[in-house]
Amino acid sequence: MQTSGASTALQWDLFEADLGEVGGATPLVTTQPVGVPGNDPAFQPVTFIPGAARTEDPVARSRRRIREILTQGYTPVVAYSSGKDSSALSSLVLDVAREMRLEGAPLAPIVVVHSNTGVEQPEITRLAADEMAKMKDYAQKHGFELIVRVGAPTLNASFPVRVIGGRGLPSFPDTRGDCSVDWKVAPNTRLLKQVFKEIGRRSDVRGSVVMTGVRQSESAARDIKIARRGEVAEGIWENDLGQLRASPILDWETDDVWTYLGLAAAGEYSSFSDFSEVMRIYRDAGGSSCVIVADMKMAQQSTGCGARTGCWSCTRVKSDRSMLQMIESDPARYGYMKPLSALRDFISNTQYDWSRRTFVGRTIDADGNIAIKADTYSPEMLKELLGYALTAQIESGVHIIGYRELVAIDARWSLYGFHPPFTALKMFFDIEDGLRMYPPTLERFPKTEVPNLGKLHVGTSWQDLGGPMMGLRDSVREMVGESCGLELKGLKNGDLVIDNESDDGIDVDEEGAADFIEFFGREFVEQQCRHDHPDWAAGYMTYLQYGTISIAKGKSFQVDETLRRTRWRQEHGLHGQQDLNELEKRVQASGEPFVATVATNAPRRRP
Ligand code: SF4
After folding, report:
1. Can you tell me whether residue 150 is helix, strand or coil?
2. Which residue from 106, 122, 196, 203 has the least number of CB within 10 angstroms?
3. Which residue, by CA, sits nearest to atom 5 of ligand 1?
4. pTM of the shown model
C-alpha cells in the first residue's frame, strides 16, 4: 500500500520535531491498540503491551517500536533536521536496521529526508551534510539500503529571488510568516510526495511511514498540536491526509535525548555518528559549555518558526542571538558569518525605513488607478541588497546567489521595469572585478504608519499602447520562427503571444544560466545596460530568446500583461526608481485624467 502522497496540503509538523522549546515533561500513557489505517486490508495493528512503556527504558522502548514497523515491511521515512531529536531518531532507526540486517531479517529501504531553506545557518547546512554522509557510510558498511533526499524551496520562492528579485518583502515579526511556508512547509510537502511516489513504485515495499522526532511536552502549543493530530508514541498513526506516521520518541524527555546521544558518543550504542558536531553547535549557539544548559538557553531565543538556529537571514526575530552568540564565542571559527549577520541586521533595522520602498503599485485596478503608497522594496534598495549579498557571499564563502538566482533576479528587474536590462549582471561583474558593498550599520527605524500618497488615474491606455507587439511578442524571432520552432498562441483575451512556456514549470535553466553569463554576459551589459535604453523589458526578452528562462506553464497571460504595463510605464516615466516629490505632485493633480509627463529617459515608441 502507498499512502496518499498526492496531497499538497501543508505538513508543517514534519520537521517541527527538532529545535523546539524545552519544557517540563508528562509521560504519554496509552492503553489502546493504535494506528489502524482503514484502507489497507493487510494492515496488522501494532498492539501496545500494557505497562511495557513504563518498564522499558526509553531507548529499548523506541527501538521496539521502530523494529515492529520495519518488521511489517514498511519503509521508514525519517524526517531529519540535524537537531538533537531527529539525530537521536535517525540513529535509532539506522541501528535497528543494522541489527535486522545482521540477523538476516527482510528489510525495506530506509529513507532520510532533509530540507534546506537555502539560507540555512551555514553551520547547520554543513552539519546536516556531514551527518547524512555518515549515515550513508554506516548503511553501506552494514549492508542495508539507505536513500537520502534533500528538499529546497523553488527558485521563485527562494530568498534571493523573492526578496532581492522584488517579489515580496522578507517576513518580519509583525508580518505574515510566509517564509516558513515557502521555505519549509512547501519543500517538505514536495519532498514527501516525491518519496511516496518513488517508494510506491517498488514491489518489495509495503508502504511508507513518516517518522518524526517530535516529542510531547516541549511546549503547551506543541502538545495541543500533537493531541489535535491524534499523535501517539506506540505503533503507527494516520494523519488527516491518510499518511502513515510514527513518533517513536514522542514520550522521551529532553534528558533522554541527551543521554542517548552522549552514550552513543561514548560507544555504548552503535550509531552512525558520535554527535560531537551536534553538541558543539548546541554549546556554541547556546553559549554554555554544558550542552543541556545551552539547549535550554536556546529554547528562549528560538526564531519565528520555532527553529533554534534558523535561517541566517531570519528577520522574523529582531536579533539572531544564536548566530551572534556563535560569532562572539569563537571569532576565529565563526567570524566568517559576520557579513551574513550584518546583512540580516540591515534588513531587519530598515523594516520601517519607507524611503527604501517603492511607491508605484504594480497593478492597475478596474477603475484605471495605480495605488501610490509604500509597498515592496524600491529598485534602488533591491540594487543595494544585491550588492551586499554578493559581497557577503564572497567574504563569508557561504553560497547565497548562484547563476540561476542571478538570472532570475535580472530577468525580474527587467520584466517589471525596475532597472535597465542586465543591471543585476552588471553588478555581478562589478563585484567579480573587485567592487565591494557593505550594508550601513543603522539604528532600528521606529514603527510608523504606511505612507499612502493616494492614487494616480491612468485609465486603460496601457492595455492598447503600441498595439499587439508591446506584450509577449518578439518580431525578430517570429520572422525566423519556422526554422527555430517558435510558435504563436492565442490567449483567452484574444492576444497572440509567443509560446515560451515550459512543460515542467522550470523558470531558469541551470546550465543555460551559467553559459549565458559566462559567454554573453559582459557583452550584453556593455551593449544594453544603460539608463536611456528604449525598452527596459529587453533583458527579459533576451533571456527568453536564448532559452535561458522559460515561462511557467499557464503564465503567458500574466507575462504578456506585465510586459505591456512595463512598457506603458516607461512611456510615461513611471518605471525604475521614482522621485517621491514628483509622484506627490502627480497625485495631487489626480481627479483629472492622467496626463503623461515627459520623463528625461522617456523611451522611444516601439514599432
Ligand atoms: S528561521 Fe526565520 S526566516 Fe527561516 S523559515 Fe523560520 S521564521 Fe522564516
Report:
1. strand
2. 203
3. 180
4. 0.84
